[in-house]
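Homework-ish question, so no full write-ups if that breaks the rules, but can someone show me the predicted structure for this set?
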Amino acid sequence: MNTRSLVVISAGLSQPSSTRLLADQISAAAVGAAERQNIALTVHVIELRDLAHDIANNLLTGFPPAALKEAIDAVEAADALIAVTPIFAASYSGLFKSFIDVIDKDALADKPVIIAATAGTARHSLALEHALRPLFVYLRAVVIPTAVFAATDDWGADSAEGTLRSRIDRASGELARELERRDPVSVVDPFALNVNFEDLLKSL
Ligand SMILES: Cc1cc2nc3c(=O)[nH]c(=O)nc-3n(C[C@H](O)[C@H](O)[C@H](O)COP(=O)(O)O)c2cc1C
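A: Not a homework solution, just the prediction itself:
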């Protein structure tokens, strides 16, 4: 079985968070869908709530504190992403956008991404199409066709079997097929010493 890394970005602020709940449901479905394509996914969840101060500091100083650097490195090295935000004022939340702003603008190029959101009302479901999809297209990510939106009403007793479940499953299947036709991501360290140190000294 091939191994790939999946990074899940959750921008919920509440505790417990419906955004995190949606993120967990999508990542569990993605793991299952990938398994059916003979791919074992390792899942790394990034809770932006825990990094909020670091993100603000990065925006002010230009440098990420250690925990944020680790999260950014995980995103850059990921084979695929699931990005979930609460809808605030009919768009992605400020914290979600600020995290995206501290990631290198080329880091998401060619990376498959499921976009998803939670909200109070289904009337704002198109925020995924007018806000999140263009953002990730600008970053040259490969945005999975099915976006997943969960309003308060979608979390009813039958949410495990209803429209929300079918969208989660469809998006996860699309992501797994995208992963299947891709090589694993390899991140090149520009500061890595690739030559033998003794050889380097001999050449002086
Ligand atoms: C500041 C703020 C703005 C919001 N704006 C909207 C909105 O425009 N449309 C909407 O449907 N829900 C809106 N909501 C509701 C949240 O999107 C919803 O409660 C979300 O699921 C919260 O996610 P969480 O439980 O992960 O924190 C807003 C909530 C807050 C706190």
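Now go work out the reasoning yourself. Hint: The longest strand covers residues 2-10.
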